[in-house]
Amino acid sequence: MLFGKLLRLFSHIDPKPDESNRPDWRFVLHRTGFAKSLVTVVLVFGGIWLFFGILEDIISEDPLVTVDRVLHDGMQGLRVPVLDHLMVAVSELGDAAVTLPVSLAVLVVLVYRREWRTAAYWIVALATADAAVKLFKFAVQRLRPMSIYDGVESFSFPSSHATLSVVVYGFLTYLVCRGRQRDAQLRIAVASGSIIALISLSRLYLGVHWFSDVLAGLSLGTAWIAFLSVAHHLLDRDRQSCHVLWVVALATFLTSATIYISLRHSVDFIRYAM
Prior knowledge:
The protein is mostly helical. The protein has helices at residues 2-11, 24-32, 34-60, 63-76, 81-92, 96-112, 116-140, 160-177, 182-205, 211-236, 243-271.
């Protein structure tokens, strides 16, 4: 199976002797379990299919473009000052001034713990996602509903906030959840998913992205971290959760978010004004 071959190639695993003659797809099932493998396949290929389906609709100006305009106009009709302040603050949680310190803090912890392979996965996850977003923005050159950026960021497809929020907070969630009980994993996943969802919603509410931009970013980011998470799990399944990792990540997130929002909020509020 192609998916199994890609996972084994990416993770550079030397299988145990009794597994060496198994087909690739059986190896993956043995290491991850049927349910997780099925979910991963759906997320990876479903995310890729959805992303390129949206891209095709945008290029051909299919009805999705009309839906974008209708949803944009509807969201702008809901804007009030109180929600504006809230959504500006939420959107700032996806800015590089917050995600970059968190990313660096996670990398420092992984290096300190000598989790070299995990640190490499972390770097690849973020660097590849950022490069892919910029590449698609430059290639598609779709204009934003509201022009407030310069350079490649003046293009809207896909949403970098949506994509990178999924990759940073999503892959961090996977790393933090390693070795934890199911109820703890669920709470962490819900908290992380809520942050990602709110950041994505804020980009629509503030009028700087079309709905399809955000949906494409979410699908691209989800497909990428789903693949990386399983590939990493194949070689790291016995690693226990690191208490220090989530403490440092959370402390960095709260600190950088508080400082950045307090310094930047008034400027961004004017910037995103209708």
